[in-house]
């Protein structure tokens, strides 16, 4: 039985070209890029060439890219270091109620240190209100951290509009772009972004690799204490093979391919929804299905069927989906995203699954998923009928 992987929002498989690039650099560029002899110079060249590719992908300058271990480090660095550095200007921060835990937990830490955080609410489609944002903005706001797109329901935030509003304000603007980067066009200059976090493994690159865009002029001490790597902005010996593999994954997807992939993912969403409707399945979409959302993510509520049962039965059918964010899927805690959207008493919180597409998914995968869901739902209905 061919297994079907539909949890690409959690992680993606490294593609052959990316693996080849990484293994090649493991063999040829294993030197320490901070040393001055030939081994180090060769590694440094690969490092800086890769940095250039990453910078170009978001319309940044090379010196604005700080290499990290991934989205969590990028988020923590941007949020905590901004707060600690700028607290003399104020101690107020704005975010949303549906951020990733890599944003929420450092904010909770800062609240313990005396900072005040405003958590913007979302509607039933997972969207914030710009009116709410403007009302929350204060003279003592020092940081706004709002994700580019949500990792559970795929809603996109009004990043460009927020950046424009903050042009005449002291607050720095950070966005967690982990889910959006590599799939949607990002331009940090156009959108007036000061800080942006990414992660390579969300776009078929290696794990424990990412970067933090730090606009030229943004200054705070290195979050990690140690050596003077990354021009004293991030201590630790650079993982040159992983950086090269990350850049390869980014370079593979040109703008035209990104658009085509998003169109294919949108088609997958529509195909699943139509297939379930045609078979009389009682379900609802959590969020919106529209072309300009994160089309790789589809969150569905199957009424009366627990997340655990649906996820387990699909796993037994050889299909991998998620019950929510991969970082909390093993927890018994309800999804904070669905809770924010529908309320703590909504049955959707414990009866929903997240389906997320990737580069390797095919029409056949989607057909298998729909067939499996229909079979599971009908079997459960028959079992309940017999029990009654």
Automatic annotation (TrEMBL):
Residues in Aminotransferase class V domain copies: 4-369
Keyword set includes Iron: yes
Keyword Hydrolase attributed: no
Alphabetical UniProt keywords: Aminotransferase, Iron, Iron-sulfur, Metal-binding, Pyridoxal phosphate, Transferase
InterPro entries named in the record: Aminotrans_V_dom, Cysteine_dSase, PyrdxlP-dep_Trfase, PyrdxlP-dep_Trfase_major, PyrdxlP-dep_Trfase_small
EC number: 2.8.1.7
Catalytic EC class: transferase
Reaction catalyzed: (sulfur carrier)-H + L-cysteine = (sulfur carrier)-SH + L-alanine
Alphabetized Pfam families for the sequence: Aminotran_5
Similarity annotation: Belongs to the class-V pyridoxal-phosphate-dependent aminotransferase family. NifS/IscS subfamily.
PANTHER family cross-referenced by the UniProt entry: CYSTEINE DESULFURASE, CYSTEINE DESULFURYLASE FAMILY MEMBER
This protein's name: Aminotransferase, class V
Organism: Limosilactobacillus antri DSM 16041
Upper classification of the organism: Bacteria, Bacillati, Bacillota, Bacilli, Lactobacillales
């Amino acid at each position: 039985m061919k297994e079907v992987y539909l949890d690409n929002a959690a992680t993606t498989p490294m593609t052959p070209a990316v693996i080849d690039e990484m293994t090649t650099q493991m063999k040829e560029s294993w030197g320490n890029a901070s040393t001055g002899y030939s081994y180090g110079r060769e590694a440094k060249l690969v490092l800086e060439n890769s940095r250039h590719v990453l910078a170009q992908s978001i319309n940044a300058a090379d010196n604005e890219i700080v290499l990290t271990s991934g989205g969590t480090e990028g988020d923590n660095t941007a949020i905590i270091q901004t707060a600690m550095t700028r607290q003399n200007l104020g101690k107020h921060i704005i975010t949303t109620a549906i951020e990733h835990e890599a944003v929420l937990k450092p904010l909770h830490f800062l609240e313990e240190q005396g900072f005040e955080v405003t958590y913007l609410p979302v509607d039933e489609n997972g969207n914030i209100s710009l009116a709410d944002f403007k009302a929350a903005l204060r003279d003592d706001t020092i940081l706004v951290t709002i994700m580019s797109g949500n990792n559970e329901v795929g809603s996109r935030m009004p990043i460009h509009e927020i950046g424009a509003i903050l042009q005449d304000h002291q607050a720095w603007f950070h966005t967690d772009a982990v889910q959006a980067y590599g799939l949607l066009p990002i331009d940090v200059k156009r959108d007036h972004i000061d800080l942006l976090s990414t992660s390579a493994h969300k776009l078929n690159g290696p794990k424990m690799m990412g970067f933090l865009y730090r606009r030229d002029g943004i200054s705070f001490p290195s979050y990690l204490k140690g050596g003077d790597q990354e021009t004293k902005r991030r201590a630790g010996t650079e993982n040159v093979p992983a950086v090269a593999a990350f850049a390869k994954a980014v370079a593979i997807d040109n703008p035209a391919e990104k658009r085509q992939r998003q169109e294919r993912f949108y088609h997958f969403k529509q195909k699943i929804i139509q297939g379930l409707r045609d078979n009389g399945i009682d379900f609802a979409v959590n969020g919106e299905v529209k072309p300009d959302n994160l089309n790789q993510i589809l969150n569905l509520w199957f009424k009366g069927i627990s997340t655990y049962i649906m996820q387990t039965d699909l796993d037994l059918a050889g299909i991998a989906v998620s019950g929510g964010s991969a970082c909390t899927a093993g927890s018994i805690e309800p999804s904070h995203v669905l809770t924010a959207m529908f309320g703590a008493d909504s049955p959707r919180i414990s009866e929903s699954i997240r389906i997320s597409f990737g580069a390797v998914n095919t029409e056949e995968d989607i057909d298998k998923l729909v067939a499996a869901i229909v079979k599971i739902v009908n079997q459960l209905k028959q079992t309940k009928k017999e029990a009654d």
